[in-house]
Amino acid sequence: MTWIDSHCHLDAAEFAPDRDAVRHAARAVGVQTCIIPAVHTAHFDAVRQLAHQHGDVYALGIHPLFTPQAREADLQTLAEALQQHRADPRLVAVGEIGLDGFVPGLDMARQQLFYKAQLKLAQQHDLPVILHVRRSADLLLKALRQTPVKGGIAHAFNGSVQQAEQFIAMGFKLGFGGALTFERALQLRLLATQLPFDALVLETDAPDIPPHWLYVTAEARAQGVPQGRNSPDQIPRIAQVLADLRGVSLETVRLATCANVCSVLGIETV
């Protein structure tokens, strides 16, 4: 079986000791393609090089959590990078961009400045976007209505059915990953069974959002046990959780989610 991880930060510092081995391990279980989104201009070269090295694809953007240290000049750097690499078939989206209403102390007005500017760049370059959606769905949707783009992926989606339907109507697929594996995530699990199959994609957000079998509790972390590191080789096991929830075969999940990623990002079918 071949799989796609629609959101993997392979460039993250957590993978520095064994980055190539992590990618090879994922390929060994069938993860043929990873989408590697940048989080800041300083990461642009790394995600592009990794995508070319491992046969993956990438996105360029400024993450909302990096807006405090980002400068408006970075938007020009992004514009120039999108222009420079516009003929690169491995550049498939603008991302990771969006809004975060969860982390305390973030300036929402500043986040919106960067988000809206990056939507305009995606529109200009006719590229889909990869969205960070955390307690921000309504604000994201409002800006998308003002600056429509070529669809994309709402990463780690955990909103309402109504919000999901609005994203879907705008050409978006919704990303599900490690959070889905927790039995207490009742609302998220219900959402994953209610939405149409052609709206779902699988992701890890590696090294973050570990599935329950890698998760280390706060109590254990306080005693010095490190948090489990998520990795793209977890995709088939996460997919099995989705298959069980929906009462379908693993192959049904694979075919649907891979086709969805390929269609929304314009990459070759695997």
Report on the structure:
It is a single chain. The protein is an alpha/beta fold. It has a single domain, classed as TIM Barrel. The chain is 41% helix and 16% strand. It contains ten helices and eight strands. It has helices spanning 19-28, 44-54, 72-84, 108-124, 137-146, 161-169, 186-194, 218-222, 235-246, 250-265; strands spanning 3-5, 31-37, 57-60, 91-100, 129-134, 152-155, 172-176, 200-202. It has an eight-stranded parallel sheet with strand order 1-2-3-4-5-6-7-8, with helices on both faces. Helix 3 (72-84) runs parallel beside helix 4 (108-124) and helix 9 crosses helix 10 (250-265). It is globular. The mean pLDDT is 96.
Keywords, separated by commas or semicolons:
270 residues; alpha/beta; TIM Barrel; eight-stranded parallel β-sheet; 8 strands; globular
Helix/strand-derived category reads alpha/beta
Give me the number of helical elements: 10
Provide the CATH superfamily. Answer: Metal-dependent hydrolases
- Biggest sheet character: 8 strands, parallel
Taking the alpha carbons of the first and last residues, their distance comes to: 10 Å
Portion in beta strands:
15-25%
Radius of gyration over all CA atoms, rounded:
17 Å
Which H/E pattern describes the elements?
EHEHEHEHEHEHEHEHHH
Number of domains: 1
Count of DSSP strands: 8
What would you call the shape? globular
Average pLDDT number: 96
Q: What's the CATH class label? A: Alpha Beta
Quickly give the CATH architecture: Alpha-Beta Barrel
Which residues sit in consecutive blocks of at least 5 with pLDDT less than 50? none
Strand order of the largest sheet: 1-2-3-4-5-6-7-8
- CATH-derived topology: TIM Barrel
- Helical residues, percent: 40-55%
